[in-house]
């Protein structure tokens, strides 16, 4: 007969599923006498319910290790729950129609509660069958004591008793699995909310310890955020293929990009491998201290991602700071480009393009006109003449450090604005 163990916190009420139809069986005339014997013994068990409860609690402690801790933790609550379940179960033997719904609700609550408490389902089902065995043995013992000649009649109702036990084992398993699925969804949703808050920079300080536990990452440590878009390989969890093996990371899947909160541990050469999934665009932030700074790292990773070429590539923010500066403030970048390069717009487009290409190549060659000329397939003097022409048109001096810095930033901004 089903038993129960009372939890310290009651589960959320859930609707018990509709009773499963049972195939009717043809009863013999002797069944009436068998039911009389069953009811007589069941009434005695109901009167002796405290003693029966003590026996089941003791059996649980002895035979089911998973229940031992629950009994030892709160013996009173456990006893009361077992008592309640046995009462519903034995009452169902006496009045199957009137007591059935209450017994089902009791068993459903047990399954849901034990799932919330983490008791293994196998242990729960074992306990239910153990309770059934104890009740059945009680019926047999009581009949043997008072009317030994009627023991044989119990055979005719044995299938009803064990069908009841099986039905409630199925019911409690359904409640357990449904609650387990709900709990898993809540945990996953909570983890997602915690990760989203970290990445958005809206996480509360008080939530950081919980976030650290949920994500499996230390609250205090060095982190980078990796933003990955495109080229997500089939069969790979999230964008894990974009990272080096063994890296500790929590992935948060987004619409336009996946974000990985990556722990940078001592001895880690790089969190991003040289080879990456085909077509993937990867942006890597600079390092930050602690989970509380992950929101800033996510912003930097998104900036690095915006610098990646469309065909794919990896951009480490720390290696592209000037470009990141311009990408972070496109309005200021556009104003700087207009101020430093705007005068060239009065030229023929082809002529302006030649000057801009020469200027960019000369800067890429560390100010060497000779090397720039080799790249541009022209004479060194041609390079110098084009540079002087730029100075004349803009009033800037490429020998002045401040002007040179602004020209470099203006060219970077132009590239970002007009890729």
From TrEMBL:
Coiled coil: none annotated. Transmembrane segments: none annotated. Residues 1-24 are annotated as: Disordered. Residues 355-413 form the PucR C-terminal helix-turn-helix domain. Residues 10-21 have a biased composition (Pro residues). Residues 50-190 form the RsbT co-antagonist protein RsbRD N-terminal domain. This is Helix-turn-helix domain-containing protein. It comes from Streptomyces heliomycini. The lineage of its organism: Bacteria, Bacillati, Actinomycetota, Actinomycetes, Kitasatosporales.
């Amino acid at each position: 007969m089903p038993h129960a163990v009372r939890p310290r916190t009651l589960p959320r009420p859930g609707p018990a599923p509709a009773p499963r139809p049972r195939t009717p069986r043809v009863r013999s005339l002797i069944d009436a006498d068998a039911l009389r014997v069953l009811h007589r013994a069941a009434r005695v068990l109901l009167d002796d319910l405290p003693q029966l409860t003590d026996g089941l609690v003791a059996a649980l402690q002895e035979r089911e290790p998973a229940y031992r801790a629950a009994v030892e933790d709160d013996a009173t609550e456990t006893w009361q729950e077992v008592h309640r379940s046995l009462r519903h179960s034995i009452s169902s033997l006496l009045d199957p129609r009137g007591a059935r719904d209450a017994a089902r609700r009791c068993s459903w609550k047990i399954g849901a509660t034990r799932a919330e408490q983490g008791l293994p389902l196998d242990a729960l089902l074992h306990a239910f069958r153990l309770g059934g065995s104890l009740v059945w043995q009680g019926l047999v013992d009581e009949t043997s004591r008072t009317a030994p000649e009627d023991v044989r009649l119990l055979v005719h109702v044995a299938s009803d008793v064990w069908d009841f036990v099986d039905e409630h084992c199925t019911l409690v398993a359904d409640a357990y699995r449904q609650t387990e699925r709900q709990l898993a969804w809540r945990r996953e949703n909570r983890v997602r909310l915690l990760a989203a808050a970290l990445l958005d920079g809206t996480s509360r300080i008080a939530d950081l310890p919980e976030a650290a536990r949920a994500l499996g990452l230390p609250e205090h440590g060095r982190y980078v955020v990796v933003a990955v878009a495109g080229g997500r390989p089939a069969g790979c969890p999230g964008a894990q293929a974009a990272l080096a093996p063994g890296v500790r990371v929590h992935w948060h899947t987004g619409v336009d990009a996946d974000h990985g909160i990556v722990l940078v541990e001592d001895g880690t050469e790089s969190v991003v491998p040289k080879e990456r999934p085909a077509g993937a665009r990867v942006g890597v932030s600079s390092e930050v201290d602690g989970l509380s700074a992950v929101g800033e790292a996510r912003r930097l990773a998104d900036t690095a991602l915006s610098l990646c070429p469309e065909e794919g590539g990896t951009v480490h923010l720390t290696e592209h700071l000037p470009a990141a500066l311009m990408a972070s403030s496109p309005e200021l970048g556009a104003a700087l480009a207009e101020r430093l390069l705007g005068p060239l717009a009065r030229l023929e487009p082809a002529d302006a393009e030649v000057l801009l290409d020469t200027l960019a190549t000369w800067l890429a060659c560390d100010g060497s006109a000779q090397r720039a000329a080799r790249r541009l397939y022209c004479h060194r003097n041609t390079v110098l003449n084009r540079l002087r022409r730029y100075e004349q048109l803009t009033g800037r001096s490429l020998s002045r450090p401040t002007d040179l810095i602004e020209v470099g930033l203006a060219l970077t901004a132009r590239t970002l604005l007009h890729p």
